[in-house]
Amino acid sequence: MPNQVLISIKQRWRLIALILIPLILLPLPIIIKNSQARCGYIVLILSLYWIFEVIPLPVTSLLPLIFFPMAGVLKAEEVAPLYFRDIIALFFGSLAFAHAVESVNLHRRIALALGGLMAVTAFLSMWINNSAAASIMLPVSLAIINELERHGKDYSDKKRIIKQTTSIVHEVLELNETEIQNGDTIKEVILDASQIEEQKTEVYVEVKQRFRLPWQRQAQSKVDESHEKKYEDLRKGFLLATAYSATIGGLATLVGTGPNIFVKGFVDNTYKGTNFNINFLNFLLFALPVGIIMLILCWLWLQILYNRQELFKCRTDLEDREALADLKAMLIRQYRDLGKPKWSEYTVGIIFIIMIILWVTREFGETHGWNILFKEDYTSDSTVAVFCGLLPLILPNSNPFQRNWKYEPIVQWNVLVKNISWGVIFLLGAGLSVASAFIASKLSDSVAQALRFLNGIPRAAFIVLVIVISGLFTEVTSNLSTSSIFLPVLDSVARSSFIHPAFLILPCTLAVSLAFMLPIATPPNAIIFGSGCVRVIDMIKTGIVMNIIGFLVVFLAATTWMPKIYGLDDRATEIFFSFNRTTTPGL
């Protein structure tokens, strides 16, 4: 009977949690009858629903449209526009363009043309969804390791056969004219070099089993086990490299992952009119070095853990040279199978280059870029994203100068609608709603008052604490929902401690993407775990060190080049807080 009860609870735990969480938290708004308590009640419900995935994340993300107006925290007309703000347009445009890249197979052509693994995966993940980058590169990774394993096995077998043949020939020659079975004798055996090399001799076939001693069979078994272990480790290393590269690449650009886009929206709305703003270029200057350093250290750690013998080799032997030649031939063969680049690939490639140039040159800190051609503050990074995202929906899929040409866009709208990640867009809107409710209800002020005991902690210690907590929290929940919960709280902490908010929210933004330890932490981890070649213990063992590396690199960035990029000196902090004493930020 108790077992049946447990089974019943296990089958219905989501439904039970869906009902119990609001009921358990209900005393909060009943006892404390103010807007802060009502806002806190809703935020706690949303947070627990997100963490435990009681209902799908996109469904939870739509609840603020119901709860905040009903609780009197925000008007319905204030909440609804938050679900399609400037950053949502930026994210939509980048998703639409990423789909265009995938639909014309440009991502695979780039991967095979560059012929790398980690750098290529990271580069793709900078511009398209990290799960898409991991999905693209997973077959490439498996093909590479399978080719290396096949070549290694063939080369090992060849060496073993030559060695055994030579040994057997010597034994046969010694036993020449000696009776070895049923009174038969082996006459003089003469083998030339070519016969030995080809392992085709009749002598080898006839006597190899007779002269194979028990300890020789055991030794061969150990060699085979060692060979299998070597390539099993290499396979794990290659797959983990694919997942980690996708994660690292995503944090390097403003459009690479959800939290990066969310922090821009949070900063644009919370600190509007201050000296703190985020654009594509200054975020790239801050995050790209973090990605490059992490990628190099990740490669080194995976080499040490899964390929240390090759790492410390002073020179490449014949086997390695032949394996690399075969691998190169395989990649060239796969690239040729793609055929010549099509009109649509050229078009999307040109749009890609234009998009990057427009993002980088829109403005240079305090100096205007091409945005000076338009009315001040009327264009943003989302303008570029939507422009480049819509072009594949308009431009033709084939050369319009061909005979019998028929117009068809590169991307069909109905196909785009089916493939776009609407759930992530809703999650961004929910995050902005939570941040807006924090300020409108003055819950942020209450949190700041409650955290005044932290005022004496040094800024560096604060940053370490934020990075570690954010990085560990994101292992068990979505990185975007984590940033949605943490950023409003960190804003309050920064204000109460007289620390410029950038020192806390920017490291937090990168830290919530440092999900390396568990399959559930991020889609790339789940994708390579689904291959069946990587165990949870492998991911934890490798991911712990990767998390530590990530924490250290983000801390280094937050205390060295980030303050210079965003102008976070003492004077800037004074100006920021003097402005905020006279202006209440709003979303």
TrEMBL record:
The chain crosses the membrane at residues 12-32, 39-68, 80-98, 110-127, 238-263, 283-306, 343-361, 420-440, 460-478, 498-521, 542-562. InterPro entries: SLC13A/DASS. The keyword Glycoprotein does not apply. Its main location: membrane. It is found in: Membrane. Keywords: Membrane, Transmembrane, Transmembrane helix. It holds the Pfam family Na_sulph_symp. It comes from the Eukaryota. The keyword RNA-binding does not apply. It is a multi-pass membrane protein. One of its GO terms (cellular component) is plasma membrane. GO terms for molecular function: C4-dicarboxylate transmembrane transporter activity; dicarboxylic acid transmembrane transporter activity. Belongs to the SLC13A/DASS transporter (TC 2.A.47) family. NADC subfamily. This is Uncharacterized protein. The lineage of its organism: Eukaryota, Metazoa, Spiralia, Gnathifera, Rotifera.
